[in-house]
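As agreed, record copied across for absentees:
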Amino acid sequence: MDVKPYEFMVKETPAREWSEGMGSLIAVAMFLGGVSGGLYLTSLYFNNVWGMFIAWIFALGMGLFDMAHLSKPFRAWRIAFRPGSSWISRGFIFVILFIGAAGIQLLINLMTGNPADINPAEIFFRVVAGIFAFGVAIYSGFVVGFVNGVKFWNSGIMPILFVVAGVTGGASVLLATAAYTSAGDFSTIQAMARFMLVFYTIVIFVHLWIATYSGPVARDSARMLVKGNLAGIFWVIIILIGVVVPLIFVFTAGADSPIILMLSAAMVLLGNLALRYSILRAGMYTPLVPE
């Protein structure tokens, strides 16, 4: 929606600072954080060290993209001083502590030389990293969910959508990793990936359904996704490429098809990124004065 400067907050005003220019890096950071947390949690459950390592790399990427969109990145440390009132501050702390705890856990695992042998120190850091991994996966949903001026985001289901998206992406990556590394529990991971893709789709449409009852601006945002200028991204990238095709692959491919499963994971991740970008792009501020 094109809003002229003199129409700012008189008409529905797009939240451009979240989705245009350097602000578009916010979507990338949210995507990396969600997948990082979701992948670490699923890898922790299945005791897949390679998955944990990939999750740690994703978390580092999230930190880099978060820093990149700041005008003064070397002052980013100040964000940590308002955890009592800011989800951005809490998220910053979650990311730093997760990177530290997961890094120590992976280092301990590397030093023991036997991935199956988990000593008490590693168990401790796994638990700590798992707690903060959940925080990393969900906090960006609270960041946008607490923006009262954008009714499309201001919903209790937003944190659920973001963490479900992260776990779905993580399960898809872990399934491909298990096929390449010949790790055990492949069939169980495959069943989880199937379930999460279906559940992820349901949560997306539940969010859109809730938005239609959250006021005219939120309803217009939902329409923008379903049949407006973001419909191509929504139906082609998020639904078709990000859900439908991977679901077919996950149901038909086995452990002997690592390339197909890697392609499936890449498609899920692409849809995951597109979902966050589209949600941020569709967000519009509610007018403060009558038109």
